[in-house]
Amino acid sequence: MKLDILAFGAHPDDVELGAGATIAKEIANGKKVGIVDLTKGELGTRGSAEIRSREAAASAEVLGVSVRENLGFADGFFKNDQNHQIEVIKMIRKYRPEIVLCNSIEDRHIDHGRGSNLVSDASFLSGLVKIETKFKEEDVFQEPWRPKWVYHYIQWKNIDPDFVVDVSGFMKTKMKAIMAYTSQFHDPNSEEPETPISSKNFIDSVNYRARDLGRLINTEFAEGFTTERHVAVRSLGDLI
Ligand SMILES: [Zn+2]
């Protein structure tokens, strides 16, 4: 299956929080999108790997993604090394996306910046013909594939975006996808310990950030991204 966009996240829910509305919008525009979670989030204070994988599947359905996979890397301890890069390359070559989305370049959770570097490096390496990989399911070599664009969504820290996407009309879907992670986010009836992301303040901040980025481009909501390359336009009037 060929995808247009492949979104990676260190933990299930990273992609929804960072780029959920953009993904919902791209899907509404006919694009095929997949999500690959690097870990099962097994070190999370609330919930468990099993609960989170059920929640991730429910959330994927809300967004309408074509596929969601989990690489099963060690939460908190995976590395940006050859072994991990090869596993990410296999996913990129399997789905051949034009666009790769990945974690924030730098963040409070140490997995985010590391996951970002890992996916970014693997996106480059995936285009090198002499790195040989095989499909997991069959004994067949994969063709090299380099995505045209790698964009980093924004997570905990307020990183200045290089560009923003107008996601007006898609915030409801994003919030619904996030709230599919019932173990992680604000629930007044939960008896699990409070975490930085389980407060009402956090969920409000997700909505507020989208409103604020929207305000700056004169739309209702927006999501921001950074990129390691220049943002290019075909003419001066192309920006909205
Ligand atoms: Zn995370």
Q: What's the tally of helices?
A: 6
How much beta, percentage-wise? Answer: 15-25%
Q: In oligomeric terms, what are we looking at?
A: single chain
What do we call the CATH homologous superfamily? LmbE-like
Low-confidence stretches: none
**H/E series:** EHEHEHEHEEHHE
How many strands appear in the DSSP assignment?
7
Shape: globular
The total number of structural domains is 1
Give the fraction of residues assigned to helices. 25-40%
Assigned CATH class: Alpha Beta
For the biggest sheet, the summary is: 7 strands, mixed
User: What hetero molecules are in the model?
Assistant: zinc ion
Please, what is the average pLDDT?
95
CATH architecture: 3-Layer(aba) Sandwich
Quick summary:
The protein is of the alpha/beta class and 240 residues long.
Please provide a written account of the structure:
The chain is an alpha/beta fold. The protein has a single domain, classed as 3-Layer(aba) Sandwich (Rossmann fold), CATH 3.40.50. Helix content is 36%, strand content 16%. The chain has helices at 14-28, 49-63, 82-95, 110-125, 171-179, 200-216; strands at 5-9, 33-39, 67-73, 99-102, 149-153, 163-166, 222-227. Strands 3-2-1-4-5-7-6 form a seven-stranded mixed β-sheet, sandwiched between helices. Helix 4 (110-125) links the parallel strand 4 (99-102) and strand 5. The two termini are 33 Å apart. The model has no long low-confidence stretch (mean pLDDT 95). Zinc ion binds next to loops.
Features:
about 240 residues, 6 helices, globular, binds zinc ion, alpha/beta, Rossmann fold, 7-stranded mixed β-sheet
